[in-house]
Amino acid sequence: MGLFDLNSSDACFNVWWLMAKPVKLLGLIGVLAGLLGVALSVYMLLREATAISLTRDIVGSIAMSQADRELLLSWINWLGSGWSFAITCFLALDLLLVLLSAIVLAVGLRRGL
């Protein structure tokens, strides 16, 4: 009936029993955080696309020379592509977090941890 005895009937002092809840909890928190991150990344991608589109429309309606307008629009396109790439990277990292957390949760549930 030692502390590391897996067959111990006194579960309060069993280290494996004490570790059971944190592994499942860690996996569940990771999955929920990853899903929240995915939802926020998709929202930000849609919002960014709308903002860039509206900015192009506003710049198109401002009275300025053609060269200045093209320069400003190319800068807006460059900035928009940078934001899109950054948000897409966050989306990929969130999906990786969901995958790894789901693996931790599945292992924790399967092994009873």
Molecular structure report:
- With 113 residues, the protein is an all-alpha fold.
- It has one domain.
- The chain is 82% helix and 0% strand.
- It is built from 2 helices and no strands.
- It has helices spanning 15-61, 66-111.
- It is rod-shaped, with a radius of gyration of 25 Å.
**First-to-last CA distance:** 20 Å
In this structure, how is the largest beta sheet organized? none
DSSP helix fraction: over 70%
How big is the Rg? 25 Å
What is the H-and-E element order?
Answer: HH
Low-confidence stretches: none
Write down how many β-strands occur, each being a DSSP E stretch of 2 or more residues: 0
**Structure class:** mainly alpha
How large is the share of residues in beta strands?
A: under 5%
Overall shape = rod-shaped
Look at the structure and give the mean pLDDT. 80
How many structural domains does the protein architecture include? 1
List the total number of helices. 2
Put the structure in a nutshell.
With 113 residues, the chain is mostly helical. It has helices at 15-61, 66-111. The protein has one domain.
Write the layout of secondary structure elements.
Blueprint: H1 15-61, H2 66-111
